[in-house]
Task: structure prediction
Amino acid sequence: MKQHVSSTVNGEQMEFLCEPDETLLEALRDRLNLTGTKEGCGTGDCGACSVLLDGTLVCSCLVFAPEIEGRELTTVEGIASPEALHPVQRKLLEHAALQCGICTPGVVVAAKALLDANPNPSEEETRYWLAGNLCRCTGYDKIIRAVLDAAAEMRGAAP
Amino acid sequence: MSEAVDFRYIGTRPVRPDGLDKVTGRANFGADFTLPGMLHGRFLRSPHAHARILNIDLEAALAVPGVKAIVTGKDFPEVEPGDIQGGEGAGDYHDLAVNVMARDKVLYHGHAVAAVAATSVRAAEQAIRAIKVEYEVLPAVLDIDSAMAANAPLLHEQLYTEGLPEKPARPSNVAQVMESTRGDIEAGFAEADVIIERTYITPTVHQGYIEPHACVARWGQDEQSLIWCATQGSFDVRSMTARVLGLNVSRLKVIPSEIGGGFGGKTTIYLEPVAIMLSRRSGRPVKLVMTREEVFRASGPASASKIKLKIGARKDGSLTAMYAWLGYEAGAFKGSPMVPGVMCVFAPYDVPAFKAEGYDVLVNKPKVAAYRAPGAPQALFATESAMDELARELGMDPIELRLKNAVRDGSQAAYGPKFNSIGLEACLEAARAHPNYQRPLEPGQGRGVAVGFWFNVGMQSSAEIHVNEDGTATVIEGNPDIGGSRASMALMAAEELCIPYENVRVVVADTESAGFTNVTGGSRVTFATGMAVIEAARDIISQLKQRAAALWNVDEDMVDWVDGKVVPKPGINVEAEPMSLADMAAESAKTGGPLLGRASLNARGAGPAFSVNLCDVAVDPETGKVDVLSFTAIQDAGKAIHPSYVEGQMQGGAVQGIGWALNEEYVYNGDGVMENAGFLDYRIPVASDLPMIDTQILEVPNPGHPYGVRGVGETPIVAPLAAVANAVSAATGLRMTELPLSPPRIVAALEAAKG
Amino acid sequence: MAQVHLPQQLERLTGGDRVLELAVPDYRSLIAALEERYPGIRGAIEKDFAVVIDGDIINDPLLEPIPPEAEIHFLHRIGGG
Result:
């Protein structure tokens, strides 16, 4: 029997029906049409499906959809404001830190979570925080630089 | 043809036109598309590496609620053999058809046996479990040696080795042999003071694109079908799918989605004909998406290789002879990149005598697909490891040794023609002068050097430029943007038309809206499709001159295009205001209608690209773990259109090569089952494994391109394998000849050395 | 005379000839001249080989002019990834 789930997604109250064993990733993509969250592996290894659940970074492929009942979810679609991109998004673009772009939504969400928790991460901290987000195109160099640059800008420091 | 000019936009680093879509989640990739009434499909795949299919019973599966169609090999037409022109190792149409859906035999674990379309993924999976298949299990061959053994079980009873003087008497698992020789190697080795001889092994590895293969297909009763898919070549999907299904290409429209990585692995097809067939049987659109496990087991990885290499040199370092025996695993169907391997194994060096012999070997593993400079990483892993060992034997600096033997302009390439305008020497000089080459090393650390090379290709491209009424422009082309190519196209159009970069939009169009264009691959998009964009822009400029001449009542050859404006040529006495593209666009209705430029070409003059990599590592003797301390990629790009994306290619290729060298391998059990079909156990490099990847772009202009561009996408993966292995060998004092250099292998080597 | 280097992989058709000199105006005449000498070579070349005329690799040649002193090679076509 399908379950009824009600939660706040990107600031908006949302309701949907889903199978009890359906993953949050499936529900986001197939029920709510939020396809910005990507599936790269379905086993929690690649980070392309990263979302924030009550502010905590999780792989949505490892969460059952009914688990978000009454909770707050942020996906990549909820990171930018209507007026402007989040600094992480803007810096990823300025640094050309994406090639194919499939890992980018996960990187955006994970990097935002990092900077929410730690406004001044070191390169090493950034590398370990993003170690769960596989990127096969960039070699990570430009991603790391972009996130550190975004952190500096958000702190109001010179890059 | 190369022009020394000051560029306005070429060489700048603007934000890519599709950037916003990709950082906000708006961009639609292969699996992001849905249609009303769409069904979901799943595959049944072979549990055996080699078996005959005796019977398939679908009765119980068809009874599962929600199941709308099931197809097996019997539902697909017989396809005649014929060479596919596409990415490397594209192979043969008959093989392609049988790879997409097995007929009488399964040839690898994971080979597709049946597919189901149902109203939900769950129903499709339930039906898959209900299909009963009776197999006669056959012995499997899983490596080059056992496949080439005299009494080896055969994958294909009708396969006879090609490339021999006579058709052999018996079929075999060797699909093709190839030999390439020059001079007298016996005499060459006799002249040598030092000879290095080793066997080098590399494992099966995967391109590891993060986006699994995905498509949606919709069949129509009028036989017109649509395919939405993630591919490196929409026209290739069209031709391959049409051939596999026996359709005319005009019946198929392929709409490429954004593509989440390919690296050569998305130059062929796996899902599309099956999706069409399921749609035809069910009358509904069908979506097929591979799981990650299926990507590993059933898409095309890169060849495992075994290469025996022998090189001889005099005391002064000059090479006297080289010999290579190269075996490449093709997987279940012919078409490994053995041929380019043979062609490039000696490419960086000027050697008076050589012999290379190559073998394309069938094994019961998935058919390999192209992977970035196909065949070259394996070949140059051997060559560059041996050169490193030779330098040590001779007590020479490894860069010095390479400079002594490097090919230069006018050198006769081992693969045939003379080189012209190449950057190997420049890369080696830059490496020698690089601060990272001078940094002192600590105990337990080692430094490796290696050279990379790739041919690069041209092939066919089309482009159109539509000028809008305000003088802005739209570029229409057919290469899926896999790494920022829209930005490069916009830069080239802006440069030619002298309009701001921001005023150019680039559309990657479908097979009915763009002119025919070959794959996004072969390092050809910026080079060849870029050339088409430049020519399309020049087509517009020539029309501007014609229209201005008419307006000014002068001959067309009296009009020039200078600084973005049509002007009368010096000395032409006419009252005329210079006019920009915007000026002309505003008046276009009165001067002949909309401005539309176009070009189609079969690009030639793709100059080869050389690179040199430096790698420093530290090896933990207790655990065998290798830490990459610094990595430097130096490469000749001809001309970098958007330097950030050139650096990105160099960095990404370097890290894929580091993964190939240190971690990545298909681990098979004795039955031919891959035991690590997931990203947890098939470990690609993660951010915390790596340092920054230092890059240095050199620009030795390619005379075959108007701006001097040469392809940059593939060469970066070639040198890292040997650069890393040479560094590990230096750090441990032990020559490492088998990849990956994973902790267990290093610990075992260190233990063995202790005795 | 153009210097034509025949593909080593087609020795079964060329009887071991590796280099020959031919005066031909264009690729079409070159391939016709080769076919006359080595029956079957046209098909074998069209199937697998690109031509290189003075260093310029051409995958699908036909009408390309051949300069009098040109150096001609045949290369297995490369596809790339």
